[in-house]
Design goal:
Number of helices: 8
Helix content: 25-40%
Strand content: 15-25%
Order of helices and strands: HEHHEEHHHHEEEEEHE
Radius of gyration: 25 Å
Strand order of the largest sheet: 8-4-5-6-7-9
């Protein structure tokens, strides 16, 4: 029986990563011999043939020239981004975008992301995405909505060891302006929060995202501070570290 396992070294050990690399090579243009592709992928010619067939099953138009010097190319004029999601991954993406849309009802970011996803997926996965979109509805609306721009500014600052400045209204209606080194934003008990180090108050604080306005990034990078507890959840359940076994902090 003629069987072959995906046991090639390098990229050959990960079929999905290897197939993605194959698609990227084919998208670079021209015609690739099976031997050249096998060398670039660190696998066998037989595995290249199988990966090319996998791309066809996903809806990509891979043309093959038969014979001893077999070669592959994408059909001329076909421009396809390297998206190699499984059907279940597409289901998770679309369902997740529905949840995000519930938190951002005033913005079109989730809906536009769904539309763009539909435009770039191959036909079989596009059918799964459309089916999930049709079958999914989020009934329970959150207590407060957040802005995508707020989340984005915070995320950039976390990734770049930066600071953010924003106007904030606390639970008693008192307005303040804060300078914060953000650590994480998290969802808890139906609300989104930011936890970070409040520079002016020299303390770790939490802030409701829906109470943050006029947020902006502060120029520069700063040495990251170690979070004062083993996890955000433990810090919160020990009254911001004030209970035995915790480290201090407070709500914004």
């Amino acid at each position: 029986m003629d069987m072959e396992m995906d046991m090639d070294p390098g990229l050959g050990t990960e079929p999905t990563a290897r197939t993605l690399t194959l698609l990227t090579l084919l998208q670079s243009g021209g015609e690739w011999t099976a031997a050249d592709l096998a060398e670039r992928l660190g696998t066998s010619v037989r595995t290249v043939r199988r990966d090319a067939q996998r791309l066809r099953r996903l809806g990509y138009t891979v043309e093959a020239r038969p014979g001893p010097g077999s070669a592959y190319r994408l059909r001329p004029g076909v421009k396809i981004p390297p998206l190699l999601f499984t059907a279940d991954e597409i289901t998770a993406l679309v369902a997740g975008l529905h949840l995000i849309r519930a938190w951002l009802p005033e913005e079109a970011v989730a809906s536009s992301a769904l539309l763009k996803l539909d435009q770039v997926l191959p036909r079989p996965l596009r059918r799964r995405a459309a089916a999930t979109d049709l079958a999914t509805e989020v009934l329970q609306q959150p207590g407060a909505v957040v802005e995508a721009a707020t989340v984005g500014v915070i995320a950039d600052a976390v990734a770049g060891d930066g600071r953010v400045r924003f106007d904030y209204v606390d639970q008693y209606g008192r307005p303040t302006t804060r300078l914060v080194e953000p650590y994480r934003h998290f969802l808890r008990a139906g609300q989104w929060y930011l936890v970070g180090f409040d520079v002016d108050r020299d303390d770790w604080r939490t802030f409701r995202l829906d109470r943050i306005t006029d947020i902006s990034a502060v120029e520069g990078t700063y040495p990251p501070r170690a979070f004062p507890d083993e996890s955000i959840e433990h810090w919160l359940t020990t009254d911001f570290g004030r209970a035995p076994g915790g480290s201090s902090g407070s709500a914004g």
